[in-house]
TrEMBL record:
A GO biological-process term: rRNA base methylation
25S rRNA (uridine-N(3))-methyltransferase BMT5-like domain ranges (all copies): 135-300
PANTHER family per record: PHENYLALANYL-TRNA SYNTHETASE, PROTEIN, PUTATIVE (DUF2431)-RELATED
Name the UniProt record assigns to this protein: 25S rRNA (Uridine-N(3))-methyltransferase BMT5-like
Organism: Dillenia turbinata
Entries under InterPro entries matching the protein: BMT5-like, SAM-dependent_MTases_sf
Domain of life: Eukaryota
Length: 323
């Protein structure tokens, strides 16, 4: 068969006719090697276009089989001199390979889809998501917990705690009752009279571990001016005690967060040094802004103005993990 110039320069895939298959099978049966296609010029070769061949090499070709007879054909890859490079597979074999590859592709596709779907169901608020087991320490009016619960559509993954008893809390904060009510509806675990300095031994908490343990604006109370060393020491003791306890309650890759003002005299607390002394390393310091937490009202939490908010100014969320 005459090949035109362009075809000569291209490798081709030949479909051999049924007659040839029978011939080849016969030759193989008789112990002879499969003969080159040269000299079989008068046979019924179907040459696939070069583009189709490339597709086939990329496993992207569609093999269409018209009935059982078609399955019996063999496909050979030939050079321009019609020498057999590779005797490929029967159409049946190719179909099963293509089907297997398609199945694998579909499986990995569905795994990917499952991952994406599960990720899309995970709700995030800044550093926190609906899959984290979260412990909130030293809550004020529980508006931070309520913000997360609302955004997640559930607070079943949150344990929210206050130092104050429930009775005292609802007196101190006018929105506490409403926040507690909606948190209960969202499945939150609410605990009162939880001291950050001993929370590790709390009967409900001692056997649990958390992915995120959070204390926003820890403050030991107003016993002097903020720059007094006595006052600073009180604050430092509170933060140190919190970090030590949290260290024993955080999961292996979990994080302990403290949100704190970074300007003087609050910078004197030296939170990073305190953490290092508790076997924690800083993984990130992120500028804090209240607007990331809709509905959150930071509270003074002490004294006659307990329910008042305070300007957060420049502050950061410090994230620590176990060393
Ligand atoms: C400035 S307020 C911040 C309240 C709340 N975290 C917020 O962001 O609105 C400080 C909080 O620390 C709490 N606190 C003080 N000492 C504590 C302790 N030993 N254990 C737990 N909480 C404590 C107080 O009850 C108070 O609610």
């Amino acid at each position: 068969m005459e090949l035109d110039a362009q075809e000569k320069n291209e490798r081709k895939v030949e479909l051999i006719s049924e007659k040839e298959v029978a011939l080849v099978a016969d030759e193989e049966k008789n112990g002879r090697t499969v003969e080159s296609a040269s000299g079989k010029e008068n046979k019924n070769h179907v040459k696939l276009a070069a583009e189709e061949e490339r597709k086939r090499e990329r496993n992207e070709s569609e093999v269409k089989v018209a009935g059982e007879e078609e399955n019996k054909r063999k496909i050979k890859l030939v050079t321009e001199e019609n020498q057999i490079l590779v005797t490929l597979y029967t159409a049946e074999e190719i179909i099963s390979k293509v089907e297997l590859s398609a199945k694998n592709k579909n499986e990995s596709k569905s795994e990917l889809v499952a991952d994406v779907e599960s990720e899309s169901k995970t709700k995030w608020v800044k550093h926190y998501n609906s899959r984290h087991k979260i412990l909130l320490v030293g809550e004020g009016d529980f508006s931070f917990a309520a913000c997360l619960g609302r955004a997640f559509g559930s607070a079943a993954n949150i344990v929210a705690t206050s130092l104050d008893s429930q009775e005292l809390l609802v007196i101190k904060h006018r929105n506490a009752s409403a926040n507690l009510r909606s948190l209960r509806e969202l499945g939150c675990t609410i605990l009162h009279e939880v001291n950050a300095l001993s929370m590790r031994t709390h009967p409900v908490l001692s056997f649990r571990s958390f992915d995120r343990i959070v204390f926003n604006f820890p403050h030991a109370g107003f016993y002097g001016r903020e720059h007094d060393s006595f006052q600073i020491e009180l604050h430092k003791n509170l933060v140190r005690g919190y970090l030590q306890n949290a260290h024993g309650m955080v999961s292996e890759k979990g994080e302990i967060h403290v949100t704190h003002k970074t300007t003087y005299p609050f910078s004197c607390w030296k939170i990073k040094e305190l953490a290092a002394g508790c076997g924690l390393k800083l993984i990130e310091e992120v500028r804090f802004t209240k607007w990331d937490y809709p509905g959150y009202e930071n509270k003074r939490g002490h004294g006659v103005r307990s329910d008042e908010s305070f300007p957060v100014g420049q502050c950061s969320t410090y994230k620590f993990t176990k060393k």
